[in-house]
Design goal:
mainly beta; four-stranded antiparallel β-sheet; globular
Length: 140
C-alpha cells in the first residue's frame, strides 16, 4: 500500500491505493472495501480498463475539497470529483503518461504538479529504465 487518503469529515471514510492491485474505498471504517478503478488505464494488461491490476504510484486530495482526488498510476494522471466512483484522465499535454512524482498546491485544490518520466527503455533482466524526457526535469 503506497497511498492512504483520509476523509477529514468522517473517520469512517477513506481510500487506499495498492500498487499492482488498484484503488479501494471504505465508508464503514474498513469493515468492507470497494474497488474504485473505473476509467483508469492499464496498458500493460490484456484488458486496458480492468477492475483490478492498475499500478498506482501516488494519490492525494486537498483539504479544501476532500471529494476531489488526484492520482498518478502507471498510465496517466487522473482526477475524480465524486469522492470515489469514476476517474477522469487529465494526462493531455504531458510528454509521457508515466510518472512517480505528484504534488498538490497548498492553497488551490485545482492545481497539481506532475514530473513525467519516459518508460520506453528496458535494461538488464527486462527491468524498465525510467528517465525524465530529454534528460530535463520539468514539472507540469
Amino acid at each position: 500500500m503506497h497511498s492512504m487518503v483520509l476523509d477529514s469529515r468522517s473517520q469512517q471514510k477513506s481510500w487506499v491505493g495498492i500498487s499492482a492491485i488498484g484503488w479501494f474505498k471504505t465508508e464503514d471504517g474498513g469493515e468492507t472495501w470497494e474497488t474504485k478503478n473505473k476509467g483508469v488505464r492499464a496498458d500493460f494488461r490484456p484488458e486496458t480498463f480492468d477492475e483490478f491490476g492498475q499500478r498506482f504510484h501516488k494519490t492525494l486530495s486537498h483539504p479544501a475539497r476532500p471529494d476531489t482526488l488526484y492520482q498518478q498510476p502507471h498510465c496517466g494522471v487522473y482526477r475524480k470529483d465524486d469522492g470515489g466512483d469514476h476517474w477522469h484522465d487529465i494526462t493531455e499535454g504531458r510528454p509521457s503518461r508515466f510518472a512517480f512524482v505528484l504534488g498538490s498546491h497548498s492553497q488551490d485544490p485545482d492545481t497539481i504538479f506532475v514530473m513525467p518520466e519516459d518508460d520506453a527503455e528496458t535494461g538488464e533482466a527486462g527491468r524498465a529504465r525510467r528517465y525524465v524526457p530529454d534528460a530535463k526535469i520539468i514539472i507540469y
